[in-house]
Amino acid sequence: MDFDVVVAGGGPVGLLLAGELRLGGARVLVLERETETPRARFGSMGARALNTPSVHALHLRGLLPEVERAAAMWVGPATLPPPGAPAGDSFVGHFAGIGIRADRLRPPGPGDEFLGAGVISQADLEEILGAWAGAEVRRGVALTGFDADDDGVTVHTGQGAIRAGRLVGADGGRSTVRRLAGFDFPGVDPVFTGRQAIVDLDAPEKLVAGGWQHGENGSYVLGGWADGDGPPRVHTVEYEVGEDRDAPVTAEEMQASLWRVSGTDVAVTRVHVGTRYADTTRQATTYRRGRVLLCGDAAHVHSPAGGQGLNLGIGDAVNLGWKLALVARGLAPESLVDTYTPERHPIGEWVQRWSLAQTALSAPRGPRAEALRGVVADLLDTPDGATHVITAIGGGWQHYDIPGDFPLIGHRVPDLALDDGTTLATRFRTGGAVLLAAEAEAARVAAEWGSRVRVVTARPLAFPDQQLAALARPDGYLAWASVGELAEKALREAMTTWLGPAG
Predict the structure, then answer these.
(1) Which of 134, 96, 119, 144 is nearest to 47 (CA)?
(2) For residue 261, what are the contacts with CB-CB under 8 A and spacing of at least 6?
(3) Which of 381-406 are b and which e, b meaning 16 or more Cβ less than 10 Å from the residue's Cβ?
(4) What does the alpha-carbon distance between residue 53 and residue 16 come to, in Å, rounded to a whole number?
């Protein structure tokens, strides 16, 4: 066996998955069909939003400082106004292009965790994840086919065959792995085409800068996440389809689209780099077929409105990586990987519903559509409406259905301050499970699982006098907890479920 896992696709999701697999002790290879990096292909044009679960995952792996420094925009604890203070009239997001003002949000309540959220270019994110992952990446090598059997997968490329225990398709919305493996991919066809490009304009003053501008034929926005004082970014959306997505975006095409949606005659004299996309909305019915799995856009595609795609993929990678590593090393049964689809598929379904709703609300104008947008705009201008939508899109509600009576079971563990001067998140750097156990009895039980779990004996400052024991999975989700006398049988069952048998 050459590798435990071959990951097809070297984008952010594929690189993050590779890093998670490596932390779990698996031998991993990443195949990326593109020879050039996103930095060379797109510069900083590809802006990607990061939501609460993604920021939490990056924080556990120690990547948050680098991501925050590279972000084009970042909202963190240091940038939030004090409780009760006005946040100003800045916008913190949108729903179907309807802006949501920061000063409409309700302030976080006591105990609400807020690590931050922001926007980062895909090029910056890939460079950070690639350096951290430490995995072998073969660029310019495309997967052309594979043969799966009971013992593994033979992956075929133009440079020869590779034998691996498993294959993961992280190769985008038009995934070769998904197509060749025969995954069902139901959904709806697109109704709009989006184009964005870094361009030279002969008279940019003819356009309205800042925020989406809507008209009868579509919408546009001028400006955004371009480099410094360089040429502007133009983004258009039209409710028509049929373009060849693989064809280069030309100055003539970009100009024609801009004329239609803006009603101006501004000339596009040059396209430095451009992309084209649609709102195809589809989701695989399962993310696993035997030894072949899907991750990120290979498992689900939808409109990019709301910036959910990357975050879904990050969640997939962080959920799958440690499970697949334990199974590949023979430490846990196949049933552990079987939990991947039940945990991730419902979150993908939710994102698809909200994506479809935004597409419907952004449809071509008319009296009925304008009336509906007016009603929604009024709702988003209230504290309840603004807070609900931003919280929902931010992903703070996401959790997994894990059995247990403790209130936070299945939710992300907070970054508790500990009495040794550290915080709980620092214990997740090496990718194993974490057992918070100030009492020797729980630590004794955990010792039977060796390096698969890290025992933290420091006490949380928030619960200094409570006999608290808690098990968090490697992805930072709480799997078991007890207060008071240790329930040893329940702890052993939780550790066996998520880490495999002891020893």
Answers:
(1) 119
(2) 213, 215, 217, 218, 219, 220, 236, 237, 238
(3) eeeebbbebbeebbbbebbbebebeb
(4) 14
Residue 24, burial from CB neighbour count under 10 angstroms (0-12, 13-18, 19+): buried
Quickly list H helices, 233-366.
251-262, 309-328, 340-361
- Asked whether the predicted pLDDT for residue 11 surpasses 90, the reply is yes
User: How far is the CA of 255 from the CAs of 42, 219, 233, 237, in angstroms?
Assistant: 19, 14, 13, 13
Burial class from Cβ neighbours inside 10 Å (0-12, 13-18, 19+) for residue 213 reads: middle
Examine the pLDDT at 381 and tell me if it is beyond 50. yes
Q: Residues near 401 by Cβ (< 8 Å), separated by ≥ 6?
A: 342, 343, 410
Residue the block writes with tokens 């998140």: 425
- Strand ranges (DSSP E) for 184-315? 187-188, 193-201, 213-215, 218-222, 233-238, 268-278, 281-283, 288-289, 292-294, 300-301
Contact 471, 485 (CB under 8 A): no
| Distance spanning both ends of the chain, measured CA to CA | 25
Nearest to 301 by CA among 288, 283, 321, 286: 283
Chain centre distance of CA 336: 22
Closest-CA residue to 41 (of 32, 50, 49, 29): 32
pLDDT in tens, 103-156: 888 876 655 566 667 788 888 999 999 999 999 999 999 999 999 999 999 999
Contact between residue 307 and residue 281 where contact means Cβ atoms under 8 Å apart? no
**Does an H or E element contain 443, and which?**
helix 440-446
Q: Which two tokens stand for residue 223?
A: 């400006």
CB 336 within 8 A of CB 474: no
In which band, very low, low, confident or very high, does the pLDDT at 226 lie, cut at 50, 70 and 90? very low
Per residue in 308-349, pLDDT (tens digit) is: 889 999 999 999 999 999 999 999 999 999 999 999 999 999
Distance CA 4, CA 15 (A): 16
Q: How many CA atoms lie within 13 A of 164 on its CB side?
A: 26
Answer with the residue of higher pLDDT: 179 or 74. 179
Q: How many CA atoms lie within 13 A of 220 on its CB side?
A: 28
